[in-house]
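Input record, target 12 of the design panel.
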């Protein structure tokens, strides 16, 4: 993520013009970047019996994908994409009776299909919103335990597959902003607001929704 922000900052300082697509044109844009995921109504404890009252934290992940865009007119375009996104939720470390629970997190992988309208409010600068459909490919619960009892420290790392506890499909609303430089490199910042509940009715995540912030860097090719 730090390297991505550094690249973006250098580009912003050195490139000022943009190359917005002509009306009626198609383009393809491969991109990659980082994510920050958090569950709304996240449970305060793990699904497999960790101590309760963990404080929720943001989980850092990544994404890679490609967008296809059609420029309808000077101010409006329609885009569809296919991405693989790693997101989820993390909990802050917790000490209980000389035992430290660390790196507690739920990490999920989704294949996502965003359908987005881009509103170009200025040359190269677009506001966007739409709908995103996602299919769950994997889900793991991970944490490590550091025990310092009897002046001996040992660490146990646990990883559990919880894919069966979560729903296969997810729907969210992406809202964001992007800017296209002359190169033409595109920086895109969007926030996906979860609409559907990610957990099955008998899981600890039955009331949780997945919200993900994404910052990506892409290169646009005209077709």
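The sequence produced for target 12 reads:
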């Amino acid at each position: 993520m730090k390297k991505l922000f550094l690249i973006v900052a250098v580009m912003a300082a050195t490139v000022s013009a943009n190359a917005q697509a002509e009306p009626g044109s198609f383009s393809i844009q491969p991109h990659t970047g980082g994510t920050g995921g958090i569950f709304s109504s996240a449970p305060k404890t793990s699904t497999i019996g960790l101590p309760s009252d963990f404080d929720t934290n943001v989980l850092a992940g990544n994404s890679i994908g490609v967008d296809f865009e059609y420029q309808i007119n000077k101010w409006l375009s329609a885009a569809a994409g296919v991405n693989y996104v790693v997101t989820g939720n993390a909990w802050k470390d917790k000490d209980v009776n000389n035992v430290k629970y660390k790196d507690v997190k739920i990490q999920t992988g989704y294949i996502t299909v965003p359908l987005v309208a881009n509103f170009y409010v200025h040359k190269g600068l677009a506001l966007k919103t739409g709908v995103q459909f996602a299919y769950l490919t994997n889900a793991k619960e991970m944490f490590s335990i550091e025990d310092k009892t009897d002046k001996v420290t040992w660490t146990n790392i646990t990883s559990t597959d919880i894919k069966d506890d979560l729903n296969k499909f997810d729907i969210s609303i992406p809202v964001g902003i992007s800017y296209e430089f002359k190169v033409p490199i595109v920086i895109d910042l969007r926030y996906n607001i979860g609409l559907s509940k990610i957990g099955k009715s008998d899981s600890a995540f039955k009331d949780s929704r997945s919200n993900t912030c994404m910052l990506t860097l892409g290169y646009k090719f005209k077709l």
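Residues 2-14 form the longest helix (13 residues).
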